[in-house]
Amino acid sequence: MRKVIVIGAGLAGSECAWQLANRGIEVHLYEMRPHQMTPAHRTGNFAELVCSNTFGSMELTSGAGLLKEELLILDSLIIKTAKEFYVPAGTALAVDREKFSQRITEILTHHPNIKVFYEEVKKVPRDEVVVIASGPLTSQALAEDIKELVGYEYLYFYDAISPIVEADSVDFSKGFWGSRYNKGGEEDYFNCTLTEEEYRVFYEELLKAEKVPLKDFEKAVYFEGCMPIEMLAERGYKTLLFGPMKPVGLIDPRTGKEPFAVVQLRRENREGTLLSLVGFQTRMTYSEQKRVFRLIPCLRNAVFVKLGSMHRNTFIQSNRILTPFLNMRKYPNIFFAGQITGVEGYTASVGTGLMAGINASRLIRGLDLVVPPEETMLGSLIRYITSKQGTLQPMAPVMGLLPPLDQKVKSKEEKRRLLAERAIRAMKAFKEEILKE
Ligand SMILES: Cc1cc2nc3c(=O)[nH]c(=O)nc-3n(C[C@H](O)[C@H](O)[C@H](O)COP(=O)(O)OP(=O)(O)OC[C@H]3O[C@@H](n4cnc5c(N)ncnc54)[C@H](O)[C@@H]3O)c2cc1C
User: Atom 20, ligand 1: which residue's CA is nearest?
Assistant: First the structure.
């Protein structure tokens, strides 16, 4: 029996260790807490929930809800246990965080195939089967080594997320498609135009909007390229017009002139169902973002699948480094799982932990590695992080990642229901397939 080293007993590492151990693989699980704490964890328990005590919606028609259902089909320890320690929270899966993580710790420390080592890993063994699940707050020494492993330029320490909207909700009559100076495809960017008066109102509200304060461990020196838009705005009335809102090289075919200001939207997925606001990373609170961004005429009725944020977050450019099986292209024996892969949130971290566990066990048993079908939320999220073009910013499980249905469906609710049903069928078939081996 060959062993797998799992680094980090957080949400991803705990799920991964259990999936491996239940497949008869010996697991060496390394956790640095409680000897060395992260800036967010409070206990030495495994799978500690660092902030909110909810795994998000349980509704099948939401991305997080669908993902949870898929993870239950794949026999997820974390989601099963979360359901055991459920506390009422409407449609969300909230848990008693103490009891939940104590129970996970008990199960893993008593598992006959798991040996726990309470120590910090400073170097990733290159010649063992390893799963790196050390999370967004990976210790500094390990982060240095990961930098060497993946290449200096592919490990990021902050995420600077711009909001993403559903393409269906954009008013395309209030702008035009086209790239700056016509360099690039005709439909690479949609340019939302603003008149001088619209820009002035937007600018003033942006300055007034409430912002999320930085936590001590998040105090950051931002690169010029990923500065929050409100910080740029604070530099002066015109700064944004020379930055993310600059109109130069963009001729509006409706007027034959450059608009006063633009906000560019770019496709987030191949199908073009999701569009991101280019260069609009922000620390405004979520409710303020909706209010202020809806002042942009083409976004008046925008449905935001993701709002902007800026956090301390250690994550790799999985799209450059990993295969869809979550192992490295360069070192197939080294897997990554959890938030460090560029997924976002508790449930998505569990999902990648689960798949890294299944695949590390398959590697040891000489089986082909697998990824769930793209019709599933887990499959489409993993494909997104491992194949996105350009820079990867963390992605949560959202319905817009799923490939469109074959038929046209008008009602949004009905569309989501059909997408969820299709995903569940595909995940059940996938499970049957991998159980045969
Ligand atoms: C401050 C903060 C708040 C967040 N709040 C939420 C939220 O409310 N809801 C949500 O869905 N997501 C939240 N997230 C995002 C994310 O989903 C969680 O951080 C989640 O815990 C990620 O799971 P993980 O397994 O990848 O990492 P973690 O759960 O952090 O697990 C990583 C583990 O690795 C250990 N470790 C690190 N370095 C080493 C080392 N060198 N050797 C050994 N062990 C090591 C850590 O101690 C930790 O136990 C938050 C993130 C942060 C940073």
Answer: 346
pLDDT at residue 393 tops 90: no
Kindly list the structural domains of the chain, giving each domain's residue range(s) and its CATH number in brackets, ordered by start.
3-160+311-435 (3.50.50.60), 164-307 (2.40.30)
Tokens (6 digits) for 376: 């599933």
Quick one: pLDDT at residue 105?
98
Token look-up 């199908």 returns 271
Query: Model ipTM?
Result: 0.99
* Interatomic CA distance for residues 290 and 368, integer angstroms: 45
Q: Which residue, 92, 27, 18, 28, is CA-closest to 54?
A: 92
Write b or e for each residue in 5-35: b if 16 or more Cβ atoms lie within 10 A of its Cβ, otherwise e. Answer: bbbbbbbbbbbbbbbbbebebbbbbbbbbee
* 37: nearest Cα among 25, 29, 45: 45
Q: pLDDT tens, 210-263?
A: 998 876 656 555 555 668 899 899 999 999 999 999 999 999 999 999 999 999
Nearest residue by C-alpha to atom 1 in ligand 1:
40
326 neighbors 200 (Cβ within 8 angstroms): no
- Please say whether the beta carbons of 210 and 183 come within 8 A: no
Section 193-202 average pLDDT: 98
CA distances from 355 to 123, 282, 303, 316, 332 (A): 23, 32, 31, 17, 15
DSSP reduced 3-state for 83: helix
Q: Cα(416) to centroid of ligand 1, in Å?
A: 30
Distance CA 33, CA 389 (A): 36
CA of 8 to the centre of ligand 1 (A): 9
pLDDT digits (tens, 9 = 90+) for 17-70: 999 999 999 999 999 999 999 988 989 999 999 888 899 999 999 999 999 999
